[in-house]
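seq/struct pair 1
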Amino acid sequence: MIRIWSRLNRVTQTGPDTDISTLVRREFGLRVRQRKVYDEACTHSSMLDGDKTGLKSNERLEFLGDVVLDMTMANYLYHNFREAQEGELTKRKSRIVNRKNLNLLGKNMGLQHLIRAKMRREDIHDTMVGNALEALIGAIYLDHGYKKTQRAVLLMLKHYGLDEQVNETSDFKSQLHHWATKRKKDLAFEVLRDDDSAGDDRYEIAAKVNDEVMGIGVGRSKKLAEQEAARRAWKKVYDRRNASQRRGRKSSEEKASVEGGEEKARTSKSSGNRRRGRGGRGRRPAPSKE
């Protein structure tokens, strides 16, 4: 689950926003320029019942925001996890872009207080809030374009713990510990660098197996750096294991081929002996000369 406590405390202390402009500025660091699209993002379809003013619900913006959010996360993961394959990237993305997380993010921004709907405030359920968040991202895209929206969405997600969340898609550290314990190998994580000179901690940590460096990771925290080091070490273990299995299969195939050839040679030799034996028994003895 994305961590929201710092922002949750902030919203709780200051109270819910009464204007969408305040929320957008606080959460995304952007100013509202086209107010109309933001009002649309906060309009639930129930408001259209009996309306004759041409009011629009947030459903179309929700569709647009969903695509923008998907593209933003896909681009982020593609460039930050260069060795990850499609399946792993998809798993990491689904940890962020899922209904439960979006509902939670929207609620803790206080977005539910800005949704316009023909129902009691307490009847606005979590899914409506998550949908409104996607619609809000769609509105930001129409107001500021893709590049600014991408930066703003990533800024918001990182503030809520994006880096930690995507690195927890697979707990490589636990897998590595399990593998090392099972094979009675010594696993250790050594801090190579701890640099806070830029005002933002940067850790470089090596994952060592029997004093051999198997992977090095860099991160804003020790936890992130260790996970990255463990991921790289696990990949090396996995690659070595696959290579060993391939060599084993090749050796078995070669052995089977040699044994097959020897068996064939023995069979051929035995068959020749039998043929010669049959020829000897069927041959009449030569007449003796007197």
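seq/struct pair 2
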Amino acid sequence: MKHLRTTSSGGLVVAILGLTLIVSSIPLSATNGYLIHGIGTRAKAMAGAGVALPLDALSAGTNPAAIAWLGKRYDAGLGLFNPNREYTITGNPSGFPGTFGLAPGNVESDATLFFVPNFGGVWKLSGHSAWGLALYGQGGMNTEWPTRTFGGSQPTGVDLSQLFIVPTYATKFGNEHHAIGISPIIAFQTFEATGLQAFAGFSSDPANLTNKGHDTSTGFGAKIGYLGQLTDNFSIGLAYQTEISMEELGDYAGLFAEQGGFDIPSNYVAGIAYKFGTGAVFALDYQEIFYTDVASVSNPFSSLLPPSFGGTGPVPLGAANGAGFGWQDMSVIKAGFEWGGAPWTWRLGFSTGDQPIPPSEVLFNILAPGVMEEHFTIGFTRELGSGNRAFSFSLMHAPSVSVSGANRLEAPGAQTITLEMDQWDLEIGYTWGI
């Protein structure tokens, strides 16, 4: 890990421009559940690996301690995200009294292309400390089915976007071989649901269930990180992000558990980086995402159903124990490799994890089919010479994954629901002010 040179420039103006760009465009991506696979163009090219490897100003989003090893710099990125989602209903409705059959066939989501910006800056305070600002988003509970999927209005779907503003302070200690960093997190989210009128009879608040437009909420959390250079070649990193407590989405108090609660789950990352004598670097991270922190995400669909349908309810939607999406915690392993030198640095990566949706939860997850498991990534950085500028590129492909299960509101064996998705993500980044 090298020290980067510092220069002076108008950082505050740049930060404000970056914030404006982010806030104005936050339709976001679903990769590891609904967390993005990497934060920043360079990290994305390594499948998100890098908790022990400072890459750019966006590294603070992975590990706040990383910026202690960076000089003054700015990094901005713009991604083009392409999630291809579809569901298939196999089998005709039974027509039995009390059942809720879906129209058989295959449906593809109309929402397939999104532009996703990010921005980060680092400013040195002294030889051993720095502060930074990172702005990035995640989301991905975004579907737009061009059908009356549940018999309500058309289109049917949801739209969730989340924006994080992450100021960071980091300092070195122990002969400057170790660093800690802390980041308060300010989070904004927007949500909309359409086409869910058929669930009004299951809701504690039918007037605040669906088709209410975009509701917004704000919340706060924190992230703390450590990065240590144990030898000239070997470093370790650890980072923990708290659960982010968000204001309730009151316009959807009859949909989400806890009267519209939709907090952001906690997660931690631990990893290593090893620098070979050739200058190449291998990074390996392990991440655990605690979706079970959030009732509206993890509560099982069975709480909506009476025992005659194999449930434990009925508990109405919007209640404290109301049905959610049934997501489980997710473990992700990320590996990245970087090699080369000025002016070209090359990267590739791979990540894998078990997707969070069990077969028993496919009905509600027609709205949010976050089923991705593997990500293959490549990328590079090209230094541009004068002005200490650089151009970066990353490309991610997540191969198609599917999960199938029964329609829990139908007679046993009558209908099977299959959710399927694949993804592409292309991002370009620009660095200046080094």
